[in-house]
Amino acid sequence: MRDVAIVAFAQTRHTATDSGLSEPELMLPVLEEIRSQTGMRRFGFTCSGSCDYLAGAPFSFVSALDAVGAWPPIAESHVEMDGAWALYEAWVRLQHGDVDTALVYGFGKSSLGDLRSIMTLQLDPYYLYPLGLDQLSYAALQASALGASRADLDAVARRSREAGATNPHALELPAEPGDPVVDPLLAWDIAPITDGAAAVVLAAGDAIADLAARPAYITGIAHRIDPHYLGMRDLARSASAADAARAAGVGKGHVDVAELHACFSHEELILREALGLPDSTLVNPSGGALCANPVMATGLIRIGEAARRVMDGTASRAVGHAASGPCLQHNLVTVLEG
Amino acid sequence: MPSEDLVADHVLEFPGGYTRTTGPVIGRFLTELRDGRILGVRTQEGRVLVPPLEYDPGTGDPVTGEWVEVGPSGTLAAWSWVHEPRPQHPLDRPFAWALIKLDGADTCLVHAVDAGDPKTLRPGTRVRPRWSAERTGSITDIACFVPEVTRIVSPVRVPYKIRAGASLSRFLEGIRAGTFLGSRCTTCDKVYVPYRSSCPECGNAISGEVTLPDTGTVTTFAINNLPDPRAPQVPFVSAYILIDGADVPMIALLGDVPAHEVRQGMRVRAVWVPEEERTAGMGNIKWFAPTGEQDVEL
């Protein structure tokens, strides 16, 4: 396996409402920051993650390339998923050995439509979509299946909000529970509507040392998926997250920091269990998705935040996790080491 | 940036909707549903999948051709409660989304439960489908699930006419006049209020009538959190009050004081309705209220 490391990471100052920027306008400052961090304008491979349903326009991701600059033609790909899966594709691409750098980005504006109902569109069209099951309802169903105590959920939400208050990229949110939304979820158990974007640069082989003094090496990366239908899996746990963590080798050493893509308080509890994280692991020091959830960038940001802590020396071994699908159906786990 | 925001409405829509083929397994399920039956399919390992899939999600193996009628009742495994239904939800009033294990199935069905009140739901609550009036071969042919019948309400209402009897009549006459009448047993040397014609301790007839003041002391009390038509508000306090000069307490409401401030030994006085409204009934006394005097050692 070829050594691959994260050598740069940048993200927007995420917003709770539409700041009036188009997707390429949202991406451009992030890419400028990446260019300044790496001194590079062209990469061996470029891969992005986004979802056309957020903007309600087919192939909307193509326009984001205007911020990348695609001429002369670049080698480019896209996943209709969180940017974390674009990072996975780029990691695979670097394993081919013929290119040494990859630009990965993800972006999303959840403010344009009703995200809770847009998320209904990802459900199977026969058994779930016709019911109009929305994102908050199925998340609450999973919280109910887990049966976590209100105190445990509050502890996750409170710690996340407190951490997020120190993160300049996160939203400014009140450190109080708020009203019941869909029982058992309260307002602060739910990731906020967010617009934002993020980008990561991967390097392989000799390019790693050229681009970063302290790269964050990807020593493990894997993703696994559970059955889609919510009644055909145990919603109280995440078998696929546990499988991905095992395949990525999370348990081979102490995890100093874990950034978990938990869009709801109870998801963090399920993920900590699945990843086998001890209490000594610092979870979501960025505030996590509960403090900023730019859909389609949130998972990539988790990997970027974990890498940043390896690159700045505050962690020697970190885990970045991304999730996709209803009720943590699909999980990607990366292990990052200095 | 332009000087003002340019904003336009935009709708993404596929007019008429997508046409999707169902395949043999989902198609069979939806066809049976249209006829009011819920069928599952058996996997090679022997589990019954409801709703059925073409493959076993655990192993990826194709399912067998064996169909099993399940339900229609089932039990709740987990549920969330929607306070404010969305336009696309199947119900327009608060309801539950639930994982329902239909009888005979090994997996859970996701559907809505019209339960009225979330407090009526428990793990294991039995539910049954409410079918749509017109069925078309869709998961929404089940309009929702509803709890099974596990209880009925039996109203009881029988009218009577009751007479107060001689002792109580005498006491209530006193009440109409704004006084408390008691009786003294000369054998036991005890004063009872309300007035009574025999001593409950020795059984002797009592003839001695005494007029007592409308002040007394709280001996014990209860804070009631369930509404009662006779009480002014919730929580309300009912107390045993030892009328000054009496040897046994009588029960009455306390008012004009927050429930948490009521204590044993508190001095209280009856609050009477205005004289012109008085009748020969306990309604003459709104409640007892603190006098503000020093508490009494009981």
TrEMBL record, chain A:
Name of the featured protein: Acetyl-CoA acetyltransferase
Keywords of this entry: Transferase
Family matches, as InterPro entries: Thiolase-like (IPR016039)
GO molecular function list: acyltransferase activity
SUPFAM superfamilies, A to Z: Thiolase-like
TrEMBL record, chain B:
All residue ranges annotated as the ChsH2 C-terminal OB-fold domain in the record: 67-131, 209-273
Pfam families assigned to the protein according to its UniProt record, in alphabetical order: OB_ChsH2_C (PF01796), zf-ChsH2 (PF12172)
Residue spans crossing the bilayer: none
UniProt cross-references to PANTHER family, sorted A to Z: BLR3430 PROTEIN
Organismal lineage: Bacteria, Bacillati, Actinomycetota, Actinomycetes, Streptosporangiales
Organism from which the protein derives: Nonomuraea soli
Protein name (database record): DNA-binding protein
Limits of the ChsH2 rubredoxin-like zinc ribbon domain: 173-204
